[in-house]
Structure formats: C-alpha cells, structure tokens
Design a protein that fits this description.
The protein is an alpha+beta fold and 131 residues long. The protein has helices spanning 4-9, 54-74, 116-129; strands spanning 17-20, 24-28, 38-42, 79-83, 94-99. The termini are far apart.
Length: 131
Amino acid sequence: MASIFTKIIAGEISCYKIAETENCFAFLDISPLAPGHTLVVPKNEVDYIFDISDPLFIELQLFAKRVAEALKKSVPCKRIGVAVIGLEVPHAHIHLIPMNNVSDMNFAMPKLSLPKEQMEQIAKDISINFK
C-alpha cells in the first residue's frame, strides 16, 4: 500500500508544495513544530533513509540543502534544524525546521495548526526563494 507521502507526490492528497526535481519532493508539514517546517522526501518510496541508494541519498541531501537555503531566506530564524526520525511514516523523509533555540526541535512539543492562508503564503515564499 502506498504511503501518505507517495499519495501526496502523486497528487492524490493535496499539499503545500515547495519544490520538486525528478527524484525529490518538498512540502510543508501540516502539523509543524514551527512555521515553515518542511518535509523533504525521495519520490521513490523507501521506508528507511539508509536503504536509499547512494546516488539518490546524495541527491536528496543536496536537494534538502537547497530547500533549507530557501526556507532560511523566507522564515525569520537563526538556523534550519535537520532531523531524520523515520518512525511516523514508512517513507524516508527529512524534517527541515526553522529554529531560534534548541527547544524548537523538540518533537514532543505540541504541533501548530496554522491557517490555510498562512501555509499557502509560507509555501509560496519558500518556493520563490528556491534555486
């Protein structure tokens, strides 16, 4: 059965898309830790990030770097935090989270629920800065 991320990539489930390449896809997390919290995934569904082929792993990391650079230009923050947990969805993914303090990366914290208009604007801003 296809993961929720595979369904998002296929357009079966809507998302706030940031960017995509032939093999990678980035979109906003709908339950973010901070405004701009972005998920970066390979389009090919692989459960565990370290099971991804070396060439795709490198491509995914470089794509995530480009998304993080666009995110930092779009959302006021000191850094973009990076996390790979991989237990929530059986599809490898990288979390990119705008942060000003270490505590901003605490996944035990309550998630935000941002209005659709704000999510759309954040996604648009990041997309514009993506190069």
